[in-house]
User: Fold this.
Amino acid sequence: MTRSVDLTKKTILVTGAAGFLGTHLLRLLRKQGVRKILAPLSKEYDLRKQESCKAVVRGVDIVIHLASKVGGIGYNRSHPAEMFYDNIIMSTQLLHEAYRAGVEKFVGIGTICAYPKFTPVPFLETELWNGYPEETNAPYGLAKKMLLVQSQTYRQQYGFNAIYLLPVNLYGPGDNFDPKSSHVIPALIRKFSDAKEHHAKEVVIWGSGKATREFLYVEDAARAIILATERYNKPDPVNVGAGFEISIADLAGRIAKRIGFGGKVVWDTSKPDGQPRRCLDTTRAKSEFQFVATTPFDMGLKREIDWYKKSLAKH
Assistant:
């Protein structure tokens, strides 16, 4: 096992720290005794601008790059150019400026959307280049995938220690419930909650319900990132997931039951399913930096629904 780096002695930049994963990562870093954390807001430092990237990496030992433009299928379909440009420009400039500033380590966070549309299940990291990504997510997935190429080439040419992690869809308290950009779990929680509140007889959901997804509890994801930051220093990409898959129909049923919606679920098959199946092989994460997801899915789902109900009650 690689000798672990003591993060409490490092100055760490976390981009996207105000986001869903970022808030959980900051909390966990602080809980572990890390005090020197820089967490710039996008309104102060626009990472699409090179001068902002140059400014934020100054005097930093480690960069954990979470910042990205994200959204569900609908948002990806209607904003493909923005999804490509914003994500590729942020990552490319930030890694380059981190290298130029003498940063010790760069932790890049990729996406499961980078995998080919018809990847054999469970997804192995070696399958990453064996086909084109699912069309609705391709601009986003490919933009994030270029960070892997850049990480590997900067390591090869400059000896720059950049690593690349591939997390699955995250969920948990603090998730994004904006219907314009939310992912499937918060979108369904909101739909069923609204339907129950308004005594609706049915809920319409995109696709056929047959597609499968894998979900990782956000606190598990934050723990994985910290373990990789401490222990992993190789060029190969690493899957970060829980190692299971669930159909969207099963997911919808579980959420409806937990919320108490007793109406009908209608599947709008004129809308896309997205990638047919998603489930990661997580062997490499376990062997390289001893990460195993520990939060049972139903427990994590309950925590997210409870958090959403509390946040509704506050407003």
User: Anything to note?
Assistant: Residues 7-175+215-244+278-295 form a domain with the Rossmann fold fold (CATH 3.40.50.720). The mean pLDDT is 95. The CA atoms of residues 217 and 303 lie 10 Å apart.
